[in-house]
What we know:
By secondary structure, the chain is of the alpha+beta class. Helix content is 24%, strand content 23%. The chain is built from 13 helices and 16 strands. A hairpin with a 2-residue loop joins β1 (2-9) and β2 (12-19).
Amino acid sequence: MQYWVRxxxxxxxxxxxxxxxxxxxxxxxxxxxxxxxxxxxQGAPGYLNxxxxxxxxQSNIVAELPIVEDTYLNEALPTPALSEDRPELGRSxxxxxxxxxxxxxxxxxxxxDPDLRAIFSGGSLSGAADPNHILGSGSNLASSTETxxxxxFDTLAxxxxxxxxxxxxxxxxxxxxxxxxxxxxxxxxxxxDTVSDPRSLTFLRYKTNLVAVVxxxxxxxxxxxxxxxxxxxxxxxxxxxxxxKADLLPKDYHEERLRMWFKRFTKxxxxxxxxxxxxxxxxxxGIRELAADISERxxxxxxxxxxxxxxxxxxxxINALLRISIGGSKHRVLASHIPGTTMGLAAxxxxxxxxxxxxxxxxxxxxxxxSLYDTPGVFSSKSITSHLTSDELKSAICSxxxxxxxxxxxxxxxxxxxxxxxxELIDGPDRVYVTVFTSIRPxxxxxxxxxxxxxxxxxxxxxxxxxxxxxxxxxxSFPQHRVALEHTFEGLHRKHAxxxxxxxxxxxxxxxxxxxxxxxxxxxxNGHGVCVRPPMMPFEYKKISPHMSAARKTPK
Length: 556
């Protein structure tokens, strides 16, 4: 049974189908992104050329799986049996070479392995003629020699394919995954392949035996949380909440205080939360503790579903669990900085997670059909990164440990995070202190100059701002800055931050100072993706003298 969800992206109506049995069916899927294989739309997820499609069927024959017909082509691709000549498995050229009697006998005598010598001499072949008859002459000799060569070649080719399958080196991936893995890019706008409607997860409401692992980005709270997620996946399922990318925070963060701060934002999710973990999938921080918790809370036969926004690290978290498993690394899925890398419901049997999720002494009989599922990330259209290209994402998304810097923000002054957002102090004290948590180099200027820079950017002129980048057409197409919020608050402490202004996907700015009232105004593309929240790291403010130049605190 399939549940269809319609989603409108850039004015184009698209359909998404997620089947509760898609990953367990015989439909061929890309093992790294979960997209169904197809041969019609080049560059789209799941695309295979004719050679790869034929190679996939060759692997299916060896693994004793059914041959998949190409439904997108006018006729099915011819797939030769293992007994036919196959140049792609090691032979050069398409014509067959028949050895003479002397050449064949000499080649057989030079084989050191007695088993292989018996195979090539025809002694162990089923249905073969008497060896004395094989060493005869004439047409019978040529025919017998050719049959022995073909059969022995098939035996070696089958053994080679099985050996590569055991080592995980024969996985056939789609063209999109190959380009992402080796070139870190996609051949078309990445937004076309994303899912932005959380109703695509409603099929989980009808599942009765699962554990949900909800993953979010600790560097993008609350933007990486799906509001009212329990209404879509069901409120009865046990949920383990995972805050990923803890390695991006400063080293001196207090884990327990951060966990208590994070729990404030989980009350509106309507989930049956059993535990909360702060991890780093890339650095394997907290992964063993998470695996032990999942194993303890999961009942026999229960499936595991990874759920969350796009680009929060679900795929990398699966790879981290595979890294601590015995022989699990060869089953890794694709993870990249581009949102929407996972395109379908990708299933990995739990037997590949030995020692991590399955006991090393043997799995329970009920777990033989259980799997861990990687679901497509639900992209937030309000994220500021939704307006960036794949190259701009590399500069905007934080990929290494952040170093916070403190600055002085005077009244009627603005701090700009490239062309992606800006914060202005429009009323209140003469100055406040701001601590910036982002990988984008901040730019300080007065309010009038900031508006002038954005107007030049809208006209396609190059400015001092780091992002967006590109030619004049790219700059003109970037959304205009609009007011995202205007907030009045009281400064509570002169050394601790009072609140954070979070820019979804790119970081946040903490405001420190003791004053009766202050008014700030924030701008972002189309006025989306900005919010205020309690300070995440209030003690990272570094004291600055009022006479100290802010330029001395600018990162190099």
